[in-house]
Amino acid sequence: MKIIIECPECENEIEITEDDQKVGKILECPFCGSELEIIEVEGDEIKVRLIEEEK
Question: Which value, to the nearest 10 degrees, does the dihedral of the CA atoms of residues 29, 38, 20, 16 take?
């Protein structure tokens, strides 16, 4: 089952696979390149947070 999440940086929709639906998984937005971490998985709802790069 595929789930659609929204990138908090560019607001584009990202389709993720069942294998990627794990807390702690790091994803990269294919549109803006931001790194996102899955912080919560409840059924078909997934919450992500933007990983801030150190400057």
Answer: -50
The separation between the first and the last C-alpha atoms of the chain, rounded to the nearest angstrom, is: 37
Query: Does residue 31 lie within any of the structural domains?
Result: yes
- Find out whether 28 and 36 touch, Cβ atoms under 8 Å: yes
12 within some domain: yes
pLDDT under 50: residue ranges of the chain: none
Gap between the Cα atoms of 21 and 10, Å rounded: 20
Please tell me the predicted confidence (pLDDT) of residue 30: 97
